[in-house]
Amino acid sequence: MKKEVKKVVLAYSGGLDTSVILKWLQDEYNCEVVTFTADIGQGEEVEPARAKAISLGIKPENIYIEDLREEFVRDYVFPMFRANAIYEGEYLLGTSIARPLIAKRQAEIARITGADAVSHGATGKGNDQVRFEMGYLGQNSALTIIAPWREWDLNSREKLLAYAAEHGIKIEMSGKKSPYSMDANLLHISYEGGILEDPAAEPEESMWRWTVSPQNAPDEPEYIEIGYEKGDPVSLNGKALSPAVMLEQLNIIAGRHGIGRADIVENRFVGMKSRGCYETPGGTIMIKAHRAIESLTLDREEAHLKDELMPRYAKLIYNGFWFAPEREMLQAAIDKTQQNVRGTVRLKLYKGNVMVVGRSSDLSLFNPEYCTFEEDSVYDQKDAGGFIKLNALRFIIAGKARKNK
Amino acid sequence: MKKEVKKVVLAYSGGLDTSVILKWLQDEYNCEVVTFTADIGQGEEVEPARAKAISLGIKPENIYIEDLREEFVRDYVFPMFRANAIYEGEYLLGTSIARPLIAKRQAEIARITGADAVSHGATGKGNDQVRFEMGYLGQNSALTIIAPWREWDLNSREKLLAYAAEHGIKIEMSGKKSPYSMDANLLHISYEGGILEDPAAEPEESMWRWTVSPQNAPDEPEYIEIGYEKGDPVSLNGKALSPAVMLEQLNIIAGRHGIGRADIVENRFVGMKSRGCYETPGGTIMIKAHRAIESLTLDREEAHLKDELMPRYAKLIYNGFWFAPEREMLQAAIDKTQQNVRGTVRLKLYKGNVMVVGRSSDLSLFNPEYCTFEEDSVYDQKDAGGFIKLNALRFIIAGKARKNK
Amino acid sequence: MKKEVKKVVLAYSGGLDTSVILKWLQDEYNCEVVTFTADIGQGEEVEPARAKAISLGIKPENIYIEDLREEFVRDYVFPMFRANAIYEGEYLLGTSIARPLIAKRQAEIARITGADAVSHGATGKGNDQVRFEMGYLGQNSALTIIAPWREWDLNSREKLLAYAAEHGIKIEMSGKKSPYSMDANLLHISYEGGILEDPAAEPEESMWRWTVSPQNAPDEPEYIEIGYEKGDPVSLNGKALSPAVMLEQLNIIAGRHGIGRADIVENRFVGMKSRGCYETPGGTIMIKAHRAIESLTLDREEAHLKDELMPRYAKLIYNGFWFAPEREMLQAAIDKTQQNVRGTVRLKLYKGNVMVVGRSSDLSLFNPEYCTFEEDSVYDQKDAGGFIKLNALRFIIAGKARKNK
Amino acid sequence: MKKEVKKVVLAYSGGLDTSVILKWLQDEYNCEVVTFTADIGQGEEVEPARAKAISLGIKPENIYIEDLREEFVRDYVFPMFRANAIYEGEYLLGTSIARPLIAKRQAEIARITGADAVSHGATGKGNDQVRFEMGYLGQNSALTIIAPWREWDLNSREKLLAYAAEHGIKIEMSGKKSPYSMDANLLHISYEGGILEDPAAEPEESMWRWTVSPQNAPDEPEYIEIGYEKGDPVSLNGKALSPAVMLEQLNIIAGRHGIGRADIVENRFVGMKSRGCYETPGGTIMIKAHRAIESLTLDREEAHLKDELMPRYAKLIYNGFWFAPEREMLQAAIDKTQQNVRGTVRLKLYKGNVMVVGRSSDLSLFNPEYCTFEEDSVYDQKDAGGFIKLNALRFIIAGKARKNK
User: Fold this and answer.
1) Does the beta carbon of A325 lie under 8 angstroms from any beta carbon of chain D?
2) Which of A327, C351, D347, D376 is least crowded, fewest Cβ atoms below 10 Å from its Cβ?
3) Active-site residues of B: which are they?
């Protein structure tokens, strides 16, 4: 028994899957469809989605195509990198961080257009359905959510193609279909399925799209310098760049040096393990550089507390809880630490390696005078004796109290 | 006013610093000195320390020279790697993990020889003094600790050399003195001081001793396979190896591929920041490989809890709390998770990169059937609807309750 | 479309709800029913459930009635109290901790009797359904679970009574029906519903069953002494008691002094807030006494780490994850700390108050010599200067480095 | 070898200890002394300190006497209570939270008066020396700190009295000297020493000063209502009160009902265990009431994250790290959660008991409709099936994967 729906906003890419969904929504729910196509740097033109939507009967005023790249990097990617967020030690959360933005904007468009429902093309076994739907409900809990992959029985590519053919949906077969399920945005591109379903198998070189192989990268290293303000990268080699342009540039540079590939088995929120390969070229530079500028400018205990909270923060983003109050609570703590995270990091890029080779800051807390074994102005070596003694006092007391027990 | 001491066990390397200390202890404390020299894989012969000690007047029965390499890797390095321990996101704790073992053995030798004091050559501004002394006091709180660097005024190399000359201590001047302060064991070699005191400066290539530069590494990648049992590496390319031999082999292999360099600014326990460079070739492979075998065999929440506890565990080791009950408490939790961490990881090594290219386990929790968007035997996609709904319920309720507030 | 089921093990109390479920299972699933009734100290006779089951057509060999009180306290309640577990600052987890045991035993009986399904009487909005079903699936993932409250439409007391009347289920109407939904076991009794649905309303005195009101408690305080071994209470006023008898005795004593009432609004795992009142008389004494014996015998950092992990541990139990590996991982850490938690605690009970008035232990780490401001044998007051100085060093350095910034 | 000091600001109470210190500073350091006496609600007149100081030769312009009660409660006590901070499960941090304020103001007066040193009367084995000195150094790292108790040899009351007599310091011997070492401020009064050095001994009733015994409290309960805004108490029984007046009032009310006594063994930062008794009457009401208003208005995961961070936050305050960036980082997270913590809590006070008997809020997230087992507008009971299934999926998969292993 389907819920009554008058108007639905669909996250629409213009590709096979979401075109089939578009048609299916019209047929099954007999409702008006609003399409929303966002440019978040996935590397494909978004304008073609307009003609596609019109050809499927969408009214021009119901077609929303927007460039969200700057917002994406400024308000989602950068805050996340302030936390040095990595999921399960390896994954830079490229897909996870993009979903909340799309969901939020989709809910806003629902409000603007008076729609009572939203829909997405994420499948029923993945994390993305959760991320989309948590995003919708976090914005407007009254929205009806339609997740076609959990409702219909078109559970294979063949059935989708048959449905498309049957309903007059034109699909460009541009060359061979990739054997992988992919997702891309300005932060990363991901691969799942195909040969990756065997975790013992190495993916073929041809799978990777954004980076050359380290073996095919230049024989000469390249040096770059990133400038930071309040924990965010603001300049590259001395030139101020907007957030999205910064990430675009880093992607290009890192990509040509074979930087940013990851091949992992991860734990999905919905309960199973899955194999994924990721290219996050610019992000891989950013996480290394951010830690380096923090190493000069963060207080030790701030840094350690950040490290302890990070896995939980990363998990919240992975699981789709970007708009949850506990994520905002952690963000408040993280952002508090970034006020003095300012300066410049120099990096050497070479065949897959990102090497920090220099960092400097006018707010640096490093002073070589204090490290050498010679005398200095603030540190009296005799103090170390008392420091150690009192740190060890509980062991000394326990040793005495329980000597013969 | 010095404490009265009858017999002291000195951690003795045979080099300039500890030879001066030996003499100084005899002179200042007018006490018998027992020397303890351990082979923990620092890559220097330990037997020469015997003749050196004898030449300084140590009685043969007071000279202890021991090979602790297997104990070091089996009981210290491996347990630590079960935790995926990394300090401040970068440092694999190579120096930190060796000090407790030396301290423990030194305290045991004090008991055996009836000594009432122990002494070490760590300076008054570093972490090692803490690690040594926490180790001593954790074993025997009644020991008197002599830390010459905090007592004497020989606070420069020149003064040490003068003291040596004056007291007839022979120093082999084997070539040029390194500008760096170094520490080595089977897990790593570290560099501090010299040009590294400028965090904006890249160290010269000649500093590094255990690894070639990625640029000078072979143009051909090498594949290796590591077998795991209960979270520890037990075989390399199908051949069973003891812990120390495993790490030695991995050091050689990784070293020739330019793997395992780190260049960081870190926060010392005693309060200041310091710049350090580290080579941890085998360890860098081990941490990557261990995470890979865990990715197949650990339960998700076990893995996440381990990740959250890890920074604290690493900090305990860094700060010298290996023998503290809170470290043992965390170890109990970590070890509990490793019972099923078994299987094989395949790695590709190439010019500084360690790439996981395959993992397999008879205890694997990965099953491709559950990941694909098709139907399977355990997962009903409709369940995801309820799952998301109840996860979002608190947002839905808050949205309704506070709509107009 | 119902799943085919041959034989189902039902958690059966003999009351209205589970008797209706019994009948409903027979009718709807047309399957053999095995009843399982456990005595976990709920304070009602369990034997009458046998005649009741027989009257509903259950074969004698399909009726399981067991006394699980000792196992409950020894293997569930005591381990939980080692952690000082409290949910949301107030709730001692009385209901939460009993469900896993019942679920585990139910799954075992399913194996013994060759049943392919299990069923329980928990409703579809509460936490207990989760706790039961997580327990079943943690034991045997192949079991079919039947949760009648989520399937049928008998969603009111009236409908249940009508169903009972219609199907010849005899219900003893012993006096007036309580307006509260209750659950009891040796650890506690809980109340929900009725007037409690208004969080601004105070429950009437007549609701409480196990404790007198503090106002009606004796005017004279009572002193008791509890002996501990490895973190568990083993003797009361010098007399050794088994776990269940210990808790029974403490319930009686605490109950007469008005100890152990709680009135809270809590957050359910399934997403909403609910109001609950609880009586946990013996448990309220135990949590106070356990902390007191720990205060003498635990190392400081062990104690603090336990405190930091506790809320997560409590949440796992509340949410039904008793058999999850992450709970076992935390338990391993907690149990590791309890080896030396031994001694005696003296308590004063008076009109709702539990006051610790004495603690002693042969393993005590307390020594008054170290606390007074006078000299002692282990602590040199001058050490405090160095201790403070190095703890403050990062502030001193930051102050200097950023003075004019 | 003493440091040269020109002018020192002394935390001065006017009592024996600090009067002796005042004289000793003049004699030993031959420096000008500025006295600072703060009213933080310790319950003693502060003005008499003026005449006392003058009699000891302090210039009138060097005498600072200030009423800090409102600042103390508003900027220190209330922020701490937002966190529900309790140290080691029992201690409400009454002494710990007052020291940073005094230290901060003392450092400010040093700046104003051009003093180069500060001094306090805390002993060398306690926590307070750390709290004072961390506070000084966090404000101005250039200050010289003089801690007489760690320098002189007046380590007994007899020697102090002799010194006073010898130097013409008049001491009023008002009745018998208390056998306890005490500290008081608006939040609490503490007792150490004397009979308390035996942790098995119950303190005599006469020790307690701010509360009657529960046994002597009125036989009739008293009901009060506290209003909250942004997590802070702002009104009592409908009447708006300033922070300090609020706490004063609560102290009086709670004190007459025997509320707020604690008797514990705690772990000091400097390494030993110590016994302390505390009266925190108003604070004991506040912590209970704050949790109650949070129970209605906080999101579940916010609340749980707060609970997990609390022990660390409490430890920071206990250890003297109020001005540390990691405390500020945690405060930012905590304060973020308090925006909607608004409403009214009704409490019943009776012979030592604080019972929450009602809470209400226009921002309440509680809705009885969602809790009952009947149908409601947001919760579909069938969703629970999917929710449980996916939460248990990892157990199901593990069960299948490892069935025969």
Assistant:
1) yes
2) D376
3) 17, 99, 128, 181
Report phi then psi at D275, rounded to 5: -95, 135
User: Phi, psi at residue D191, to the nearest 5°?
Assistant: -135, 135
Asked if B402 lies within 8 A of D378 by C-beta distance, the reply is: no
Beta bridge partners of residue A144, listed in sequence order? A117
D376 counts as catalytic: no
Report CB contact under 8 Å: B264, A295: yes
Contacts of D among chains (3+ CB pairs under 8 A): A, B, C
Q: What size, in residues, is chain B?
A: 405
Query: Residue-wise over C266-290: b if at least 16 C-beta within 10 A, else e?
Result: bbbbbbbbbbbbbbbbbbbbbbbbb
Q: What value does the mean pLDDT of chain D take?
A: 95
Q: How far is D191 from chain A (nearest CA, A)?
A: 23
**How far is B333 from B231, CA to CA, in rounded Å?**
13
- What is the DSSP code string of A199-260? TTSPPPGGG--SS--GGGS-SS-EEEEEEEETTEEEEETTEE--HHHHHHHHHHHHHHTT--
Residue pLDDT, tens place only, A317-353: 999 999 999 999 999 999 999 999 999 999 999 999 9
| Domains assigned to chain C | 7-69+96-166 (3.40.50.620), 181-360 (3.90.1260.10), 377-403 (no CATH)
Residue written as tokens 């008197």?
Answer: B144
> What distance in Å separates residue A116's CA from the closest CA in chain C?
24
Length of chain A: 405
Q: Contact C393/B326, CB-based, under 8 Å?
A: no
pLDDT tens, per residue, chain B with 405 residues: 578 999 999 999 999 999 999 999 999 999 999 999 999 999 999 999 999 999 999 999 999 999 999 999 999 999 999 999 999 999 999 999 999 999 999 999 999 999 999 999 999 999 999 999 999 998 998 999 999 999 998 888 889 999 999 998 987 765 567 889 999 999 999 999 999 999 999 999 999 999 999 999 999 999 999 999 999 999 999 999 999 999 999 999 999 999 999 999 999 999 999 999 999 999 999 999 999 999 999 999 999 999 999 999 999 999 999 999 999 999 999 999 999 999 999 999 999 999 999 999 999 999 988 877 677 777 888 899 999 999 999 999 999 998 877
Selected for mutation to probe chain C from D215, D295, D363, D389 (highest C CB count within 10 Å) is D295
Q: CA dihedral defined by A250, A255, A260, A263, rounded to 10 degrees?
A: 150
Of C213, C209, C207, C211, give the one whose Cα is nearest residue C194.
C207
| Selection from B199, D326, A368, A357 nearest residue C401 by Cα | A368
Q: How many helices (H) and strands (E) would you count in chain D?
A: 14, 14
| List of chain C residues with pLDDT < 70 | 1, 173-176, 373
Q: Closest chain B residue to A265 measured between Cα atoms?
A: B295
Cite the active site residues of C.
17, 99, 128, 181
To the nearest whole Å, the CA of D396 is away from the closest chain C CA by: 5
Question: Quick check: D324 and A270 CB within 8 A?
Answer: no
In the structure encoding, which two tokens stand for residue C125, read together? 């909005």
Count contacts between C and D (CB, < 8 Å): 290
Residue pair D221/D348 in contact by the 8 Å Cβ criterion: yes
